[in-house]
Amino acid sequence: MSSFRRLHATRPSRLWKRHPAVRSEEQLTLGERAADKMRNGMGSWGFVLGSIIFLAGWMIGNRDVGFDPYPFILLNLVLSCLAAMQGAILLIAARRSDQVSAELATHDYDTNLRSAEMIERIAALTTEIHEQTVQASPSN
Q1: Long-range Cβ contact pairs of 101-107 (< 8 A, separation 24 or more)
Q2: 7 versus 69: which is more confidently predicted?
Q3: In this model, does residue 98 exceed pLDDT 90?
Q4: Which helix (H) or strand (E) holds 120?
Q5: How confident is the model at residue 13 (pLDDT cuts 50, 70, 90)?
Q6: What is the reported pTM?
Q7: Residue 102 and residue 94 in contact, taking contact as beta carbons nearer than 8 Å
Q8: Rg over CA atoms, the chain
Q9: CA dist., res. 87 & res. 64, Å (int)
Q10: Distances 117 to 14, 22, 88, 111 between C-alpha atoms, Å
Q11: Omega within 30 of 0 (cis) for the link into 71
Q12: Which of 91, 27, 117 is nearest to 19 (CA)?
């Protein structure tokens, strides 16, 4: 498998981690690494299925005789706290994604500037070669 295919066969969310313009794992702060891990964890099917299993277990275990009988007031409090924390965590993760996008955009802009300079040099060189060729050729 070619390196191009291997690069594009990986999950898109992991592609930017190997991009030369984006800081890698060891260059990130503890908070940035935590935001990446929490975003990846909370945005997964494992988290959703685990939450469903937890909720079902809580409701079944506390039907009539548990420490939090129906209408599950403690469960509502736990879920409200979880929702509040998830909102903050998602904002942190979104800020981190914006940071990655900004690093990629800066790299793209720098690459475009270098490419424009190279194209201008090539155009000037082509014009110079053309002028020399036209002058050197005999006139009819």
Answers
A1: 103/21, 103/22, 103/23, 104/16, 104/19, 104/21, 104/22, 106/21, 107/19, 107/20, 107/21, 107/22
A2: 69
A3: no
A4: helix 73-136
A5: low
A6: 0.54
A7: no
A8: 28
A9: 32
A10: 31, 24, 44, 10
A11: yes
A12: 27
